[in-house]
Amino acid sequence: MAATWPAAPGAVAPQLLGVLWFVSVTTGPWGAAAIAATGGEETLKCEDLKLGQYICKDPKINDATQEPVNCTNYTAHVPCFPAPNITCKDFGGNETHFTGNEVGFLKPISCRNVNGYSYKVAVALSLFLGWLGADRFYLGYPALGLLKFCTVGFCGIGSLIDFILISMQIVGPSDGSSYIIDYYGTRLTRLSITNETFRKTQLYP
Questions:
Q1: For the chain, which residues make up each domain, given as ranges?
Q2: One GO CC term of this entry (predicted)?
Q3: Phi/psi class of residue 152: alpha, beta or left (left: φ > 0; alpha: ψ in -120 to 50)?
Q4: What single string gives the DSSP state of each residue in 29-50?
Q5: In what helix (H) or strand (E) does residue 106 lie, and over which residues does it extend?
Q6: Mean pLDDT by 10-residue block, N- to C-terminus, for the chain (205 residues)?
């Protein structure tokens, strides 16, 4: 019986490269959409696409409120476009092959509840007329405003404290709404740790 020798390294290399290429394609970020397009599995919903497989438009901003248009219950929606050659189910449940120009789904984004109180006006009143309590009257705190007026801003100390608190957006309107601040301007975002949040340990080199 004739002995069989192992295949030469030159013959094994192309086969190995072919296997690695197949694995990288099917497990890469575009793999799920590619398999779905060929009918290998159930088509994904467009909102389940991964980052890089779609792009969303910037929200349309209301000039009066400086918040996204149609902001309801602290949420607005922006249209998102799946990348070319992606096949997924749009918000109507229809399986569509996208070219990059069609809206695939509406992505929810957070927005704030505003009720006409301007941050710039509040800071200006606190800086120039804080000793008369104008800032507190404007924000809806008439009792504190009257007290500051009668005490000349607590001899100036209360006016200084209020100016710092309003500038840092710690003191806001009495109705619980947010200040009107330019959407792309400087906004203070408070981060808090609760049972629903997670703090990732910093890894130093």
A1: 43-111, 115-180
A2: membrane
A3: left
A4: TTHHHHHHHTTSSPPPBGGGPP
A5: strand 105-110
A6: 49 54 50 48 88 94 94 93 93 89 93 94 96 96 96 94 95 94 85 69 59
